[in-house]
User: Which sequence fits this backbone?
């Protein structure tokens, strides 16, 4: 049974689409997920399962819709994928200010033509690099003031996305590795 992480997009933001983490944990356990825990209110679930990531994401999306009455995109990755993402980040090194780093998780690999188009866009002073289903972001200022938002990447790359700050990414890997 492998360690997995489910990342929900857009819950508990501005008082909308509220889900208590205890309720989310309970739902995941009802789905048959093992050793379920959550981390912070933004919708991060650490668990064990043998099922495929896509199947797990669909299960939780459907479960949230049924139990809470709204649709929430869910991305699932295993702990090895998280570790690989951390190792691939071109902006992350021992001197990096992690408060400026973010990782946008893409639901699937973007099409080559969309990748070529997005590379032409200027977002200075912020920077980004796309590698498979990961978008590594360096924000000179505050993330909420950057152009490099979930909506930006979803629109330009035509795939679902959700973002976590680097501190959360590192903590999620730590929790999934226990």
Assistant:
């Amino acid at each position: 049974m492998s360690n997995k992480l489910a990342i929900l997009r857009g819950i508990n933001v501005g008082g909308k689409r509220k889900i208590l983490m205890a309720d989310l944990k309970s739902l995941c356990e009802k789905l048959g997920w093992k050793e379920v825990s959550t981390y912070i209110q933004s919708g991060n679930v650490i668990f064990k399962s043998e099922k495929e990531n896509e199947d797990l994401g669909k299960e939780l999306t459907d479960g949230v819709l049924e139990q809470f009455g709204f649709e929430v995109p869910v991305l699932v990755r295993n702990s090895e994928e998280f570790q690989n993402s951390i190792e691939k980040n071109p902006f992350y090194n021992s001197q990096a200010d992690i408060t400026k780093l973010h990782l946008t998780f893409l639901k699937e690999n973007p099409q080559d033509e969309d990748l070529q188009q997005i590379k032409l866009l200027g977002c200075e002073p912020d920077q980004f690099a796309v590698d498979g289903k990961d978008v590594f972001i360096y924000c000179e200022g505050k993330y909420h003031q950057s152009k490099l938002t979930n909506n930006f990447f979803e629109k330009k790359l035509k795939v679902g996305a959700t973002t976590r700050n680097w501190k959360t990414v590192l903590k999620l890997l730590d929790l999934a590795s226990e």
